[in-house]
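DM from R.C. (forwarded with permission)

"hey, sorry to bug you on a friday — could you get me a structure for this? deadline for the figure draft is monday and I only need the backbone to look sensible"
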Amino acid sequence: MNTLKEGDKAPDFGIPDQNGTVRHLSEFKGKKVILYFYPKDLTPGCTVESCNLRDNYNDLIKQGFEVVGVSADDEKKHNRFIDKYSLPFTLLADVDKKVINAYGVWGPKKIMGRTFDGIHRTTFVIDENGVIEKVITKVKTKHHTAQILEELN
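My reply, with the result:
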């Protein structure tokens, strides 16, 4: 599981976004990044979390944040998710789980008595210099933006 902690340099990456454009963490240098990992597009909890970030997106931008979501879904599924819920931010398609593993959010999960490997819902707030400022592992999907801002204060 996650071994990254506050104060660590955030691992850079190069994976495609929903449009097939390879995106790198380093391109956000000088901006704060909310990098949120979520299990799956178009599922209830992930939709609630993403829509909360969408609904507060303009406020986050005004405060200097970029929002970037990551899951193992492919570009096509990301586009369906974006189109259905009018998500204004980038979603990265980490189908090979390179970034998911680099950030340590892949591992055993237990839901309704069943154990399986999957993505642990985790958010990393990364500062302007690429350093992890905050790691949120107990994500409140309905109030995620407020949770992020509270954690930073």
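R.C.: lifesaver. The radius of gyration is 14 Å.
me: no worries. The domain at 14-152 is CATH 3.40.30.10 (Glutaredoxin).
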